[in-house]
Amino acid sequence: MRIERAALYLVEMPLVSPFVTSFGEERVRRALLVALTSDGRTGWGECVASLGPWYSAETSETARHVILDFALPLLSGKAVAGPTDVPQVLAPIRGHPMAKATVEAALWDLHAQAEGTPLATILGGTRDRVPAGVSVGIQPDIATLVARVATHVAEGYRRVKLKVKPGWDLGPLAAVRERFPDLPLSVDANAAYTLADAAHLREFDRFDLLMVEQPLAYDDLVGHARLAQTLATPLCLDESITSPHRAWEALELGACRIINVKQGRIGGLSAVLAVHDLAQERGVPLWCGGMLETGIGRAVNAALASLPGFTLPHDISATDRYYRQDIATPPFRLEEGFIRVPTQPGLGVEVDLERLHRFTVRAWAWRP
Ligand code: OSB
Ligand code: MG
Q: Does residue 163 have an active-site annotation?
């Protein structure tokens, strides 16, 4: 697999509504898209890093630098038989999992296209549709939150995740739980609490939650293990799980009982497969997280969520929950609370070049 050229596009896509978490507000999704050309085909990868280093240390700009100046030169200098060789070839680059994952995803797309097979099948997926959850950001007030949740429940979403932070937790939870006593519900704190809040976090046990996601700092596995001993609700880790090895450490320590898998954060689809094997061995349930991806990243997420170990509803919502117009077509639709896994070869979505150019704010070309 020889990469003949690469094109990088920095796109800015307006969100249908602002997305507010404990670490900030996003009104526009800024994504770096990578197109690799090989043998007359184009493979696409979407980098999930954001504008600023708030969710993770990486940003779209650090990813552009690492991809153009280090990852692509390393890959073009080596004989790369396929996407599973990528982690080894990129191993000299320390960190930067999201940048590496972007290039790897584009090579998986090329490989699956060359095989004439959908990405989901290549990865070992066993489902043709996956249950959709929805992640609801912090709202201006509780009435607005309850109305939003009601809309999503009416749309058919199978699980609702509420973003929480100190000062926006027990009140909103009580209101949503009172209105929807049987709704599968979870919370995501994006690292907004500390171990000193353990007694407060124990109050969450009253609301029959599926899980509490990432309550403590991204680098605090021991803290999560301590907290897990005092909570009845299972802990799920997101930000903390940055590699298969870190997933192993978290499980060894008892820092979580559930893992939110994001291919970007974990360093690529090969790493996802390794985490999947580990979780299967230990009976740990997985689900696919989201980073407000365009249809390119969403297609990858739908494919990996079709693997047998992904047993909980995902943060894979319909396209119209994020964007009025997406770069990739057709849009993902909610059908009985499920998202269909693409069945065309490769990612199984088409990149609309007119829209790509309309949303692009900067572009770079690369040749070996
Ligand atoms: O913590 O899961 C998160 C979006 C951006 C960054 C971090 C997170 C999220 C979400 C949205 O919760 C999930 C989605 O794409 O629907
Ligand atoms: Mg999260």
A: yes
What whole-number distance in Å separates Cα of residue 352 and Cα of residue 328? 6
pLDDT tens by residue, 349-365:
999 999 999 999 999 99
Whether 78 has a pLDDT exceeding 80, the answer reads no
Residue ranges of the alpha helices (H) in 139-260?
142-155, 170-179, 198-202, 221-230, 244-253
Exposure string for 275-300, b = 16+ CB within 10 A, e = fewer? bbebbeeeebbbbbbbbbbbbbbbbb
Q: What is the position in ligand 1's atom list of the atom closest to the CA of 137?
A: 12
Nearest CA to ligand 1 atom 6: 291
Taking the domain 121-340, which CATH number applies?
3.20.20.120
To the question of domain 5-116+350-366 being in CATH 3.20.20.370, the answer is no
Q: Indicate whether residue 251 lines ligand 1 (CB < 6 A).
A: no
Between CA 166 and CA 216 the distance in angstroms is: 12
